[in-house]
Amino acid sequence: MKKILFVCLGNICRSCTAEEIMRTLLKREGLDHEVEVDSAGLISYHQGEMADPRMRAHALRRGYRITHLSRPIWSTDFIDFDLIIGMDDSNIDRLHTLAPGPEEENKIVRMTDFCTRMVADHVPDPYYGGAQGFENVIDILEDACEGLLKKLH
Question: How far apart are CA 147 and CA 140, in angstroms?
């Protein structure tokens, strides 16, 4: 089974949404028994909390029900997961410093590297913005998750 971990700063907006979008796509394609997905944050400030209520509301309007509870990334994640996907350069840089070795560093990739329709070099953090920011994040994540799914086939 392939295991994918999505990572952002607090695990209450971007990474948990990517997890749910990917889970939905995998289920739709009948691949949910072949690929496992999870998400984590680089900080533990929101540990145990549900996703941001604004993100949950925007995602639900598109058919995604985010139930993940925030958790920080663990050192064992670098061993347990085959692919560790960061949302922006800051996430990627931090993941590289946390990786225990070169083999684990090679598992780290950028979410937007999988985009096929949208031109984006990162998934922006919508936390301090308005409604359009959350919609933009979902647009980018839908595109990137669809691109990732194609690479998994």
Answer: 11
Residue in 144, 136, 126 with CA at minimum distance from that of residue 54: 126
What amino acid occupies position 10? G
Active site residues: 8, 14, 125
Using DSSP's 3-state secondary structure scheme, residue 25 falls into helix
- Tokens representing 99 are 């990786």
Q: What is the pLDDT of residues 91-127, one digit of tens each?
A: 999 999 999 999 999 999 999 999 999 999 999 999 9
Bridge-based pairing state of the strands 83-86 and 35-41 = unpaired
Low-confidence ranges of the chain (pLDDT < 50): none
Q: Are 44 and 12 contacting, i.e. CB atoms less than 8 angstroms apart?
A: no
* Cβ-contact 71, 65 below 8 angstroms: no
